[in-house]
Amino acid sequence: MSLDHPKSLRQAAEAIRSGVISSQEMTLAALSRAKASRSRLNAFIDIDEEYALACAKAADDMQASGASLGPLHGVPLAHKDMFDAEGRITGCGSLIRAGHRAKTTSTVLARLGTAGSFSIGRLNMSEFAMGPTGHNHHHGRALNPTDPDRITGGSSSGSGAAVGAGVVLAALGSDTGGSIRIPAACCGTVGIKPTQGRVSRYGAMPLSFSQDCIGPLAGSVEDAWLLLSLISGPDGFDPTCLDAPLRPLLDNIEGVRIGLAKGLFQQTLSDDVGEAVQTVGRLLDRDGVQVADAPFADLEAVTELANAVAMTEAAAVHFDSMRDAPDQFGPQVRMRLSQGLAIPGPLYVRALQIRSVMLASFLEESFGICDVLILPTMPFIAPLDRDVDVGAGSRMNEVISAMTALTRPFSYLGLPVVTVPVAASREGMPIALQLVTRPWREDLAASVARHLERALALSRFTAKAAT
Amino acid sequence: MTVREDLAELLARAFWSRSVTEAERLAMQAEIARDARAIGTHSYGRDGGLFSVEPSHFQGLMLREIKGEP
Questions:
Q1: CB contact residues (below 8 A), chain B span 3-62, against chain A
Q2: Mean pLDDT score across all residues of chain A
Q3: φ and ψ at A24, to 5 degrees?
Q4: Is the ipTM above a cut-off of 0.90?
Q5: pTM of the predicted structure, to 2 decimals
């Protein structure tokens, strides 16, 4: 472990706590990496050196005073540009809110602050979190740490790039149709999309109320789990956030029943991705875990259903701006928001009705015989930028649908998902799998993900590739 | 199916007090066509399958899962 560049959140916090390194030293190193990465990654919309160093000094002073310290005391992180911090700017990757100064602090940032962490800057993202490729008309795209000609995925593009390259150890993102999982998969990090309602969205930018989730991207399952445990649970501000305590991770997963969810994807995978699924299945089987092909509930039209819900709700969020200042949106976001006006109320409600029935069916049929479903996070590796930089062109829906084909169903159904890198493609790009469980059982998915991570020794995938 | 070309313009005029761009018009027409096909005719609606289903049943299922009830 490098003193100023620890490999995990626990190592970082322990190094500060034990006095091996100060928060200010660790923060200076993180700032140096962040600044050096700007032309290589474009992961940051803003780096706030003065604020970060002030926080670090306060952390060191607090430690010197003998005060009790949180689990992330003095550890610098950075987060997607969509979480309010009182008196500071939350730009949402947009032009319209580029100067928006928050009046309150989001629950997730408040909780990480209580744990002792602070942010060194705001990470790039798709404008208003709309866009699975990670392109941003106003700020440019973040670059993939393994291959800059390839996309980071989105919408948490900067979170994927910054964590994947090891600029910061972890970052918060948001996921409405794959926005944590896709950049995590493209950039070789772990990502957790929690159960709908596990993490308070108070003070976070809305996209689609019915599907928005906040969660971590990190270099390992342990780190992602630590962040999730810190931000979970009701806060009294977001009434949709429920009290369902996280259960601890399992050291032994032998009793967990694994289902390979072939039904959803068998026709669509690239060869490398298909091989990775089979390899993981054999590995789990070798390790004594019960693995079977899982029956898959019929997810008829799930992409259109999820999109209709998301675009209707997004069009409501941005209704006034689409009327009064449409030119301030990037072309693709404007085009997608316009779709929301074309969805009649009964169709929107019908999509929500179907969600209830489909969830009940899915819980019974798919989780009747297994505890964790495994499938790829994406059907292919991170695409080349030139193949998916479609803006508002005629291929927009085709590209968005392909990128989110395997992630959207679980956003629509509100289920928790952990994505973990499990292999490298022939091009050296990460290949990731999703582990899906019943609502509130993130512990099962994360336990299996940690088992895979250890067995495959692929944690911090791109950090290794980039150094 | 064919969606009337002026439908998007009518919606935008009514609710946004402005015209649509060509990209917006095409996007809205395509959305209507997709949703009519995929959601309007979804099999879950057959034989009154959605007649008494409320969207809030989703939250009910999620709450039931917290309690670990089957």
A1: 7-8, 11-12, 15-18, 20-21, 23-24, 26-32, 34-35, 38-40, 42-45, 49-50, 53-58, 61-62
A2: 94
A3: -65, -40
A4: yes
A5: 0.96
